[in-house]
Specification:
mainly alpha
Length: 209
């Protein structure tokens, strides 16, 4: 009985730690998105969470450590939206465009735009930020482009350069949407430009043998 009670106690404490960590990330996401990283004070953040500064440092070694967890959450949310939109049996081109649109639509969320695209590169530095992007949205972009190559929609030459250019362009459009009350028309315009861009990458017709 004692072993059962001890095991149950450990499980309860672990669950409490998980809840505390998740709560800190949720509150930090809200505060970082609203006020920005540099204007967010840890004292106010832990007060909003109903926790202590000691509880915060139990989970995160520093304010930057907390921000990294928040940024990772933003990266994963965007990647999940892109994966959902680009899944299915539609032609590769249709799925690729749907994924790009999903990226732009997800970036309208302040918790994504400010944390991921504005503060992320500044707080963590470009190299660390790119590592996170490469493992999520940029990876999905590369997968989508390779599927376009495999489908014969675009040429395989200079694919790395194409990926870098598209990634930068999509991020720039996402940044520009931050102060738009109705971003849909600009997203529509961006998607039309992207379709023309892909048209310029069409694979050359193979000669008939």
């Amino acid at each position: 009985m004692a072993e059962v009670t001890e095991h149950s106690s450990r499980g309860t404490k672990a669950a409490q730690r998980d809840r505390s960590r998740a709560l800190l990330i949720d509150v930090a996401t809200e505060r970082f998105a609203r006020d920005g990283y540099h204007a967010t004070a840890l004292e106010g953040l832990v007060a909003d969470a109903g926790l202590t500064r000691g509880a915060l440092y139990h989970h995160f070694a520093s304010k930057i450590g907390l921000f990294e967890a928040v940024l990772q959450g933003a990266l994963e949310r965007v990647a999940e939206a892109v994966e959902r939109a680009s899944d299915g049996d539609a032609p590769a081109r249709t799925r690729f465009l749907s994924g790009c649109r999903a990226f732009l639509e997800a970036s309208v969320d302040p918790a994504v735009r400010r944390i991921l695209l504005v503060d992320g590169p500044i707080v963590l530095g470009w190299d660390a930020w790119r590592d996170g992007d490469s493992a999520t949205s940029a990876r999905l972009l590369d997968v989508g482009l390779q599927e376009l190559v495999d489908a014969g929609d675009i040429d395989e030459r200079d694919l790395a350069a194409v990926s870098a250019m598209l990634s930068g362009a999509l991020n720039e459009v996402a940044l520009s949407l931050g102060d738009r009350r109705e971003p849909e028309p600009e997203i529509d315009a961006a998607m039309r430009v992207l379709e023309r861009f892909l048209g310029g990458l069409a694979a050359p017709e193979r000669p008939v043998e």
